[in-house]
What we know:
Number of strands: 9
Structural class: alpha/beta
Oligomer: single chain
Helix content: 25-40%
CATH topology of the largest domain: Rossmann fold
Distance between the termini: 40 Å
CATH superfamily of the largest domain: HUPs
Strand content: 15-25%
Bound molecules: pantoate
Strand order of the largest sheet: 1-4-3-2-5-6
Largest sheet: 6 strands, parallel
Low-confidence stretches: none
Radius of gyration: 19 Å
Mean pLDDT: 98
Amino acid sequence: MQIIEALVPLRMAVERLRQDGPLALVPTMGALHQGHLTLVREAKAHAAHVAVSIFVNPRQFGAGEDLAAYPRPREADLALLQAEGVSLVWAPEVPTMYPQGYATNVSVSGVSEPLDGAARPGHFDGVATVVCKLFNQVQPDLALFGEKDWQQLAVIRRMAHDLDLSRPYADDIYGVPTVREADGLALSSRNAYLTAEERQQAAALPRAMQAAIGKLQAGEAAAPCLAELQQALLAAGFASVDYAELCDASTLVSLGAKGDAPARLLVAARIGRARLIDNMAV
Ligand code: PAF
């Protein structure tokens, strides 16, 4: 497994790997868990080689967010990737990604705006910018992202379509279903912020979402179901709910009730030091 931190050796390594067949990219910010490893395994099924990027992207963290505290267990991450048979780890430092004088921003309107876009201004510009750069740097044939970040996936697909990217084509950007703990909590690097008590309380999130989905599928209006969901989270120990919305699954336009088109329930809520997000099909 090659660990590369500079662009020229990256280009040379990528050129060599591509001679064996398709190259897949799994972009990450490190602090790897089973969810990331599931992406790597899925990538291996579609490609001759898998590259994983590890870069904690400062541009997608707002003021007062957890950039400094974000876990960076580099050696443990590298050991996990080595064991998965990853061929290349792209691990640039911040000045390599954003050198002195860096001035370009990729901004996707529409799908970036509601939900996390409203709760975390600038977040999706940071994501779209770094993912566009990662695609240009690694030039993968396909890329894989977790569906846990449903809105992020929609933003990245929109960006790839709109910018006519070809490595990867928008159609070669795959979403992989969320990996969950036995009690339903979605795996996330930010679960590491939870105390033992908060970790138990956090299981109320998928439980309350499932309860709401049952009612939405039975044709109940979204507003009372979502209000009940929020109450259930606050009663379980969550400090606040940033949003709980029923949305069109691809445009993320808010819906008043489940209709014929695929819909998604998306929630972000805070507990202790963690802000947890989750989403499920309705
Ligand atoms: O999902 C993440 O880990 C990040 O948002 C990503 C896609 C690697 C961009 O920094």
